Amino acid sequence: MHSSTSRLPELDFLRGLALLIVVVDHVSGSVVSHITLHTYALCDAAEAFVFLAGYSTATAWTTLAAYRDKAAARRWFIKRAWVIYRAFLFTAGLLLLASAVLRAFHIETPHTARDLQQLIASPATVLRDIVLLRRQPYLASVLPMYVLFALAAPVMVPLARERPWLLVALSFGLWAVAGTLYWYLPAALNNRWDFNPFAWQLVFVLGALARCQPVYQRIDSARFGRIAWLAALAIIASGAYYKLRIEPSTPGIMKRDLEWPRAVNFIALAWLVADLVRRGWIRHAAERAPWVGAIGRRSLQCFVAGTVVSLSADAVLARTTGGQHDVWLGLAADAVTILSVFAVASLASLPARALTSRLRKRLRL
């Protein structure tokens, strides 16, 4: 969810694709979600999005430090943390507002029903808990983790560049005790964090290391590069077999604390995607589908909008179908969801003056 002055089309494309998958995966009647990553792997698009955030964070830091200085980079990331925190508050408010509107039309939103009921019963307490990150409504719950990552960037990225092995040791050590540290996170009663930042920092750090250190290039050029490729393929195949034949639904606790099967499965997938990047396939895809890259370039705005769109689409679809699977309505919900996110990306990409001019022309019509 960070930007840099030097755009990488592959990064924007992959980030946009991951965001679209996150959005459709949260529409329970979605047809597209049946072919997305979580169906065939122990991990899902969340790992990809966090990894890419680490990569883009390192890119932004490197660019700022080179063209200005480290102090400017530190200030930028502190401001970035504030921007993400405000986005969290805005997203939480939008989700509760959308839930209230849908409820007025007798459309239930199970994911936010409890927060909405408690807000009606005790608004001051609920609002205070949201401000203090003790309560994180539905999909907004991922943003507090990014606030912490942005604040950690001034320490983490220099270590990734200058002392990578120390960063790896610290990151894996923190991941190992993440389950214990989780219970010290601020939380209201029955409102624990959906993402344990002490665990998920591992994926973020791996993304930063991929940007700062030529890990893939060194292993790929070595004699055992092919062995690493085959090992990654075997891990992916094993994960797919487990998901399709043994356990179709991965336990939620496995995601919250990023348990090792998810981490290993994602690292294997990331390895193969890195090979696709090296071969130029991802760049070619980015050139063929520039609208996906547009979403990646405006990932924060699109994520905020996507949370509300997916919540609304999920609730309306469930009400329309009575909880039954309907292919055509599911495809319609997918289309509305994807087009809505793209519309937000398009609007966010317009300069303020151009946007105002277009709105005036529309009003005249």
Brief digest:
By secondary structure, the protein is mainly alpha-helical. It has helices at residues 9-25, 37-40, 45-67, 70-104, 113-121, 123-131, 143-162, 164-176, 178-181, 197-212, 215-221, 225-246, 252-256, 260-278, 281-288, 290-297, 299-321, 327-349, 352-364.
Describe it for me?
By secondary structure, this protein is mainly α. The chain has one domain. It is built from 19 helices and no strands. Helix 7 packs antiparallel against helix 8 and helix 7 crosses helix 10 (197-212). Residues 1-5 have low confidence and may be disordered.
Features of the shown structure:
transmembrane helix; disordered N terminus; globular; UCP028704_OpgC; 365 residues; mainly alpha
Low-confidence parts lasting 5 or more residues at pLDDT below 50?
1-5
Between the first and last Cα atoms, what is the distance in angstroms? 37 Å
- Main beta sheet strand tally, sense and closure: none
Q: Which class do the helix and strand fractions yield?
A: mainly alpha
Summarize the topology.
Blueprint: H1 9-25, H2 37-40, H3 45-67, H4 70-104, H5 113-121, H6 123-131, H7 143-162, H8 164-176, H9 178-181, H10 197-212, H11 215-221, H12 225-246, H13 252-256, H14 260-278, H15 281-288, H16 290-297, H17 299-321, H18 327-349, H19 352-364
Helix pairs in contact: 1-3, 1-15, 1-16, 1-17, 3-4, 3-7, 3-10, 4-7, 4-17, 5-6, 7-8, 7-10, 8-10, 12-14, 15-16, 16-18, 17-18
Pfam family, one: OpgC_C
Transmembrane segments: 12-36, 48-67, 87-106, 138-157, 164-185, 197-212, 224-242, 327-352
Keywords: Membrane, Transmembrane, Transmembrane helix
